[in-house]
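idk why but the lab printer keeps eating my pages so im just putting this in chat instead. protein + zinc ion:
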Amino acid sequence: MTDNVIIFDTTLRDGEQAPGCSMNLREKIEVARSLERLRVDVIEAGFAISSPGDFESVRAIAGAVRDCTVASLARCNAKDIDAAWEAVKVAADPRIHVFIATSPIHMEYKLRMKPEEVLEQAEAMVRYARRYCPNVQFSAEDATRSDLDFLAKVCAAAIRAGATTVNIPDTVGYTTPIEMRERIEYLRANVPGAEDVIFSVHCHNDLGLAVANALAGVSGGARQIECTVNGLGERAGNTSLEEAVMAMRTRPDLYPVRTRIDTTQIYRASKTVYSVIGQKAPLNKPIVGANAFAHESGIHQHGVLANKQTYEILTPESVGVHTNNIVLGKHSGKHAVEDRLNDLGYHPTPEELEVFFQDFKELCDKKKNVTDADLEALAEQRAVLDEVEEEGGYELDWFAVHTSNFTTATCTVSLLKDGERHQDVALGDGPIDAAYNAIDRIVQPGPHTFNIFNIHSISEGKDTLGDVTIKLTSEGRTYTGKGLSTDIIEASITAYLKAMNKLCAAAK
Ligand code: KIV
Ligand code: ZN
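predcted complex ->
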């Protein structure tokens, strides 16, 4: 029997906690659904005590997801654990994940606790969590900079108290593959009760070794990997789910293990996560970057034509990348569009298809050839729509900009709301700033911070769609707006209006 490696996804906790990656509730649910389709075993939905918003999203995800374990993080104290349990208890399979730091530097300067106190606290709090839930994970934060004997004692205490998973985090991305493998081997051989629990690894990528260290953990006997889609996470990120999973799948000779992951959903999940945070995969990102399966040089092309395996160790299809890029256009009918969406992994309801087809037709008026990338962008945009948009709010009627490199840009904006027209004009540092100033004059939003403005082209060519993401924050909540158009000023205005509508609706 081949061993199973549990895939514990922490995109919604460790990933979301990284600067520029915050998500609102609706976006988190969207990502959670993607993770469920991907068939991860465990979704770490958040850190319930950290804010009311986090608590609500952990609870909502616990209620929405049926096919994965849902975990909430908690420090080793009763209040955190109470909140974690309150948030995850509705899950089909809830897990409480408690952690405490075990390295000398963290214990002395962060916790201001003696090692014996940490040991005692870890044991008491795992026991406390077990009173609520049979599925308790214990993490020894900064484990790879902890004294090995002390780490073994803490793990033994956690197991005595009822932990079912023991996680060894490389919190600061400091370890190396050999060291990680040896550490896991040592703990499995020397911690009393080790045979009754799953050992797990959680590796940060500060030295670019996260995936290698996680795989080394598996070689040492870890049977859970903590990871994130696209490798999001604190600082340089976390173990990338898609890289770790595909490495194990591609090298069964080295990793005689299996996972539950439906690898054909990897590309779509990656796109969803990038779309939610308003980023795009770097071209050379393994597995999901645009160049990951591109063969440009003559020698490589020649080899691939003769036999794909000369330069391809895994197929694009195995991760859900479709290389038969069928181009649609204004003569394509609804069925052709639906077929293509299905091939790309999207299965809209008849009502959703109707709306999608309108978007598609509008795009065809502006762009002759609609590619898979365009269809995916339209589909992802629809997926992150907010109910506020459906209920109303401001809509763009028209805009006019005047700009040059020797005058101040001016923009006049006309917006519609509840059948009424609102118009204003403003100056700005460039046409987009001018447009946003005009919108502000009409909408008069409350205090907020403008956090992120990202713009990407979806495909190649001058008529490509511009994809704009905007994130505004107010009182700790994030409001995202996305705009997609062949005209980047229009896309920027649409994205801003969507974020503004959400901000204003929340302020009511
Ligand atoms: O990096 C880390 O140590 C963590 C723990 C809370 C598991 O994220
Ligand atoms: Zn971490």
